[in-house]
Structures are given as structure tokens and as C-alpha cells.
Design goal:
Shape: globular
Structural class: alpha/beta
Number of helices: 8
Helix content: 25-40%
Bound molecules: adenosine-5'-diphosphate, magnesium ion
Radius of gyration: 18 Å
Largest sheet: 6 strands, mixed
Number of strands: 10
CATH superfamily: P-loop containing nucleotide triphosphate hydrolases
């Protein structure tokens, strides 16, 4: 599992959430690696631990036990301050609720993570992203003046501009109509193909998962299926397995 081509990985990852007196074992010894330049979907029913896994992989949440690596950095064991720096420098995020800063324009939102950290602003990449996403005429608007789809496109440009080691997306199409959602998924797939971006996307929607190269299926905090969609043969099986797990709930 300790393979260099795995830009992100977890070994025996356990996460127990404390809820009042109750302990919820959201991740039950998960071992998995994510290859560079691939698009992986983490699928499974609501409550199966998808977001918890993504949060632990991205350094947004701490593990109860086990190991999480991002590139050469072991996240488990870092201080909050060090984790903040790793997230800032190495990770791009896309959330269901867009999470744009309301007082900033679209352009300011997109460039903020780069300019705030004094890094080089890659104008060619910015132009490319804005062009592919079709948001060039929205750059001076604030989020409240944008549709949900436009806000998510801004969030995608923001996530990719910093050339993060991994883009983590949690239900990125959850608040979008199906056509806009398909455009967002197409963009993610294209960013893997054209920019060699590594993308890990959480979704409970089998149709969204089908855009990925690989589908991991979680149930009750464990990986119950791991399908290489790129091989072409197992797409139906992956979807079936997501649907079956979903129905079992
Ligand atoms: N912050 C938290 N506090 C307590 N329990 C949580 C917390 N986050 C998640 N859980 C619980 O952990 C389990 C997995 O949740 P989650 O990772 O959000 O699943 P998914 O994203 O697949 O819907 C669920 O039982 C959920 O209720
Ligand atoms: Mg979730």
C-alpha cells in the first residue's frame, strides 16, 4: 500500500465520532491508496462514512487511529497549525454548498488561496479554467449574484488554480440540477485528463460516480467494493453495487 504513485493514502484508518454518550465508528479500519492523476469516486449510502473518509484524507478531521498520508507528509500526528498549512498548500476543496466568500467577487474568490499565500498566480491556467468553465463574464459578480451552477464553477476554478496535489469534492453536484451537475462532472473529468489533476469525489449518486475512473463503495465505514471503471468492464457492476448497498439501508 505504501506505493509512491499513491498521492493520498490511508492505512488501518479508524474514526470514531463521539455523539453525546454514544460512539459512532464512522470508519472501521480503512486501507486505501489513490493514484496520481486519476478520478476516484467514493460512493455509498448516506451515513456510510464517505465524508468522514474524505475529511480525514484531506486533513479536515483527525483520525482516531491509523495513518493518513498526503504525498510524503503523514497527516496523522501533525498539529492543527501544520495541518492548516498542508491543506492550504496541497489540497483543493469543492463542497456541495460552494463555500464562496460572499463579500468577494468571483475573481477575488478564485485567486484568494494563491494570492493570500504569496504564491505565483498562473495567469494562463486562470484564463484556461475560466474559459473552459464559461464564467469569464461573471468575474466581477459576487456569489449572491450568481446561480448555483455558476457559484460551483467559481469554486472549481478556485480549487484547481493552486494546482493542488489532490482536489477533494464532497457531493459537488448535490445542490445542482442534473444538467448543471453533468457539466460540473465533465469538468472534473476533463481536469484529470487535461491537467493531470488528481480528484477524489464523494457522492451518493451512482450516475455521478460513473464519471470517475474508479469507484470505491463504502458501507458502514468499510470499503465493500473497489471497481476500476477505466477498464470498461465493470461500470454496470459498480453501479449495481452502489444501488444494492443503497437499498439495503
Ligand atoms: N461530527 C460528527 N459527530 C458525530 N457523528 C458523526 C459526525 N460526522 C459524521 N457522523 C456519523 O458518522 C457516520 C458517517 O457519517 P458521514 O461520514 O457523514 O457519512 P456519509 O458522508 O457517507 O453520509 C454517520 O453515522 C454519521 O451520523
Ligand atoms: Mg457526506
Amino acid at each position: 500500500m505504501n506505493m509512491p504513485e499513491h498521492i493520498s493514502r490511508a492505512v488501518d484508518l479508524v474514526k470514531v465520532h463521539q455523539q453525546g454518550q454514544a460512539q459512532i465508528r464512522a470508519l472501521d479500519s480503512v486501507t486505501v491508496g489513490f493514484a496520481r492523476g486519476r478520478f476516484t469516486a467514493i460512493a455509498g449510502p448516506s451515513g456510510s462514512g464517505k465524508s468522514t473518509l474524505m475529511h480525514c484524507l484531506a486533513g479536515l478531521d483527525s483520525a482516531t487511529s491509523g495513518q493518513v498520508m498526503l504525498g510524503d507528509t503523514e497527516l496523522t500526528g501533525l498539529s492543527d497549525r501544520e495541518l492548516t498549512r498542508v491543506r492550504r498548500d496541497k489540497v483543493g476543496f469543492v463542497f456541495q454548498s460552494f463555500n464562496l466568500l460572499p463579500q468577494l467577487t468571483a475573481l477575488e474568490n478564485i485567486v484568494l488561496p494563491v494570492t493570500m499565500t504569496g504564491r505565483f498566480l498562473d495567469q494562463d491556467l486562470l484564463d484556461h479554467l475560466v474559459g473552459v468553465l464559461g464564467i469569464g463574464d461573471r468575474m466581477s459578480h459576487r456569489p449572491a449574484e450568481l446561480s448555483g451552477g455558476q457559484q460551483q464553477r467559481v469554486a472549481l476554478a478556485r480549487a484547481l488554480l493552486a494546482r493542488p496535489a489532490v482536489v477533494f469534492a464532497d457531493e459537488p453536484t448535490g445542490n445542482l440540477d442534473s444538467r448543471t451537475g453533468a457539466e460540473v462532472l465533465d469538468f472534473l473529468r476533463r481536469s484529470v485528463r487535461d491537467l493531470c489533476q488528481t480528484v477524489v469525489m464523494v457522492t451518493h449518486d451512482p450516475r455521478a460516480a460513473a464519471y470517475a475512473d474508479r469507484v470505491l463503495v463504502l458501507a458502514d465505514g468499510r470499503i465493500v467494493d473497489d471497481v476500476d471503471v477505466a477498464s470498461g468492464a465493470d461500470v454496470a457492476q459498480a453501479l449495481q453495487s452502489v444501488a444494492t448497498v443503497g437499498r439495503a439501508r
